Amino acid sequence: MLSKDLVLDKLNDKLVSKLESLKISLIQTIESRNSDTKSSAGDKFETSREMAQIEIKKLDDQIKKTQQFLFDLKADTSLLIKTDKGVFFICIAYGKLIISEDIQVICISNLAPISNFLLTTEIGMSFNFNKIKYTMKGK
Q1: For the chain, which end, N or C, has fewer CB atoms within 10 Å of the first or last residue's CB respectively?
Q2: Consecutive 10-residue runs of the chain (139 residues): their mean pLDDT?
């Protein structure tokens, strides 16, 4: 049975795993940048260090975003909403989360355009979004 706690646990596991992977990538990129030796081709060295610095910044931004997602999950203001077109988890903008072989959940933020429809439509009622009709099955 699909529950909010199951989705929270699975999403938390995915985010923790992603965070660990990003931190490892960051350490490796920093080590790679620092181990570059200056060659007689100075421009090549500077370009290589600058590219590494850009990658470090990108990884750092992803780490901060993932940490924020984990923080937001702990706030537990999430909602699990079932429609005839699928299950939505309103909490963070993670995207598709695969729970099992036959169960997937779309994780969206409360600022996503469809969120307002999902939050305000009563069970059994329908709404149209992007030319698709959704019928509410449960909250």
Answers
A1: N
A2: 90 95 93 69 66 90 94 85 94 92 92 92 93 91
